[in-house]
Write a structure and sequence with these properties.
Shape of chain B: globular
Number of strands of chain B: 8
Strand content of chain A: under 5%
Order of helices and strands of chain B: EHHEHHEHHEHHEHHEHHEHEHH
Shape of chain A: globular
Oligomer: heterodimer
Strand content of chain B: 5-15%
Number of helices of chain B: 15
Largest sheet of chain A: none
Order of helices and strands of chain A: HHHHHH
CATH topology of the largest domain in chain B: Rossmann fold
CATH architecture of the largest domain in chain B: 3-Layer(aba) Sandwich
Largest interface: A-B, 9 and 17 residues
Structural class of chain A: mainly alpha
Radius of gyration of chain B: 20 Å
Distance between the termini of chain B: 56 Å
CATH class of the largest domain in chain B: Alpha Beta
Strand order of the largest sheet of chain B: 2-1-3-4
Helix content of chain A: 40-55%
Largest sheet of chain B: 4 strands, parallel
C-alpha cells in the first residue's frame, strides 16, 4: 500500500436494525437520569484520564447510543473512577455507577 | 412559501445563441479536450456563435474559496470578464467551470441587493483598467447549454448510450457540482433538490440514470480540503463514500459537470486502489465530462476528446457503446508526438 501522507477515514456506518436495543435499557436502570444527558461535555472536560488518552465519558455515552457495546466496554476499562465527571455533570448523572454498569452488562 | 410550485418553476432561462465563453482553470489543465469539444460542438455541430476570447482571465474563485483573495478583488476580476464580453459585443455569458458559475451568480446577486457595491466595483475597475461593462443578459454554465441542445445532439448523433452487446441502456451515475445549484438553487435546472441537467442528457441519449443513496453527496474536493494536505483524508473519504454507495448498482460510467468533481472522482479511484487496495466496479468506473459524453454521441474520436487524460481507462465504456478507436494512437498528441503515458495500475485495465 502506498503512503500518500493522508488516508481515507473508516466508515462510521451503523446498521441500527442489527443493534440489540435491550442492553442500554438495562444500563439506564443504573441511573435513569442518563436519558436526560444534554451532551454538554463537562464530563469530558473534567476527566483526568482524558488528559493522557482519548477516553472520555461523552464518547462512551455515544458508543452506547450507537450500539457499539464492545468498543464501549474497552473504553470503560480506561476509567480511573475518580468521579470528577459526576461532580461536574449539570444533570447530576452518576457517571461512576454508569461506568461500572457498562463493565457488568456489556 | 416555496418559490417552486411545479416543474416549470424549476427550470431556468438559457440563451439560444451568441455566447461569450469563459474557460476553467482546472479543466484547461486536466480536461483540455473537453473545452475544445464544447467549442466544436456549438460552432460546428449546432451552428452557434461562441467566442473563445484569449483576453479573459481566471474568475479567481479558487483564491476566493481558499481565503486568499478578498471578495472585492474577485468582484473586480468578474467585472473585468464582463467588460471583455461587453467590448466583444456579446451579452450571454457562459462559464466552463462550476465554481466560476457560482462566483458569477454570487457577484450578480450581491450587486442586485447592494447596488452601492456594484458602483464601487465599477469605479475600481475603471481606475485599474479604464474599462466599463454591461451586466450579462444571461449567465449559464456550459452543462446548461449542452442540456438545452441535448435533443439536437441526439438527432445529429451516431452513437447511443446503449450496450450494443445486450441492447440494454447504459447505466450512468450523474454527479452535480455543489456550486451549480447548492449555492443558488434557482440558478440550476431542477434546483438543488432535483437537479436534472445531467440526468436529462443521459436520458435523452438513451441511457438510464442510477439513483443511489449518496447521489447528492459532495465529491469532497472543497478547495481547502484539498489544498491543505492534512485535510485530503477528508476529501478522499467523501469520494470513497460515494463510490461505495454507487458500486453495487454497477454503473457503466459517472458523468460530472464540475471540473473538481470530474478530476477527483477519477483520480481518487487510483488513490483508493493504492491506499486501501479497493477497486470500485469491475475495472474502476470511468468518469466523463458532459462534453466528452456529447462528443461520443456525436461520433468524435475519443482521443480527440482528450479521454486518454483520464486516470480510469474509458475503453470498457467505448466497447459497450460500440465505438471504434485506435489503441496505438491513444497517447499520441497532435502531430503524432507522444504525450507520455500514466503509471499502470491494477483494476484499471492497463495491466
Amino acid at each position: 500500500m502506498v503512503d500518500f501522507g493522508f488516508s481515507s477515514y473508516k466508515s462510521r456506518f451503523i446498521d441500527l436494525d442489527k443493534v440489540d436495543t435491550k442492553l442500554p435499557t438495562e444500563l439506564f436502570k443504573e441511573d435513569e437520569i442518563l436519558r436526560a444527558c444534554i451532551g454538554c461535555g463537562g464530563c469530558s472536560g473534567a476527566c483526568t484520564a482524558a488528559q493522557f488518552t482519548n477516553f472520555n465519558f461523552r464518547l462512551l455515552h455515544t458508543l452506547i447510543r450507537r450500539g457499539e457495546y464492545k468498543e464501549a466496554k474497552q473504553e470503560a476499562e480506561k476509567c480511573m473512577l475518580c468521579g470528577k465527571c459526576y461532580m461536574t455533570c449539570p444533570r447530576g448523572i452518576n457517571t461512576r455507577k454508569i461506568i461500572q454498569g457498562i463493565k457488568r452488562i456489556f | 412559501m416555496s418559490i417552486y410550485s411545479n416543474w416549470s418553476s424549476y427550470q431556468k432561462e438559457i440563451a439560444e445563441d451568441k455566447f461569450y465563453y469563459a474557460r476553467s482553470c482546472i479543466r484547461q489543465n486536466f480536461f483540455p479536450g473537453s473545452e475544445k469539444a464544447f467549442l466544436n460542438i456549438l460552432s460546428k455541430n449546432l451552428g452557434k456563435d461562441i467566442l473563445d476570447d484569449p483576453l479573459h482571465t481566471s474568475c479567481s474563485g479558487i483564491a476566493y474559496h481558499a481565503d486568499i483573495l478578498p471578495f472585492e478583488t474577485t468582484m473586480t476580476m468578474v467585472a473585468r470578464q464582463f467588460a471583455m464580453m461587453t467590448e466583444a459585443g456579446y451579452e450571454n455569458f457562459v462559464s466552463s467551470c462550476i465554481t466560476s458559475f457560482g462566483i458569477y451568480s454570487e457577484v450578480l446577486e450581491t450587486w442586485h441587493h447592494f447596488p452601492e457595491k456594484e458602483a464601487q466595483i465599477r469605479e475600481m475597475l475603471y481606475k485599474a483598467t479604464k474599462r466599463e461593462f454591461k451586466i450579462p443578459q444571461n449567465v449559464a454554465h456550459t452543462s446548461d447549454i449542452i442540456f438545452k441542445f441535448r435533443e439536437g445532439i441526439r438527432e445529429k448523433g451516431v452513437n447511443k448510450l446503449v450496450n450494443i452487446h445486450t441492447g440494454e441502456p447504459l447505466k450512468g451515475v450523474e454527479h452535480i457540482g455543489c456550486h451549480y445549484a447548492k449555492v443558488f438553487p434557482s440558478k440550476g435546472i431542477g434546483g438543488s433538490e432535483f437537479p436534472y441537467v445531467l440526468a436529462g442528457m443521459i436520458e435523452a441519449w438513451g441511457g438510464t440514470v442510477v439513483d443511489y443513496p449518496e447521489r447528492r453527496h459532495c465529491c469532497g474536493f472543497g478547495f481547502r480540503n484539498y489544498l491543505v494536505k492534512a485535510n485530503r483524508g477528508y476529501s478522499v473519504s467523501n469520494t470513497k463514500r460515494k463510490l461505495e454507495s454507487m458500486a453495487p448498482f454497477q454503473p457503466d460510467f459517472i458523468l460530472a459537470n464540475c471540473p473538481g468533481c470530474s478530476m477527483f472522482i477519477d483520480k481518487w479511484q487510483y488513490t483508493l486502489k493504492q491506499m486501501d487496495g479497493v477497486v470500485y466496479g469491475q475495472k474502476a468506473i470511468p468518469v466523463l465530462t458532459y462534453e466528452e459524453l456529447a462528443g461520443l454521441v456525436l461520433g468524435y474520436d475519443p482521443w480527440e476528446l482528450g479521454m486518454q487524460m483520464h486516470e480510469v481507462d474509458v475503453e470498457p465504456l467505448l466497447d459497450k457503446m460500440g465505438i471504434k478507436y485506435d489503441s496505438s494512437k491513444k497517447y499520441e498528441g497532435v502531430n503524432g508526438k507522444k504525450i507520455g503515458q500514466p503509471q499502470r495500475w491494477e483494476g484499471c485495465g492497463k495491466l
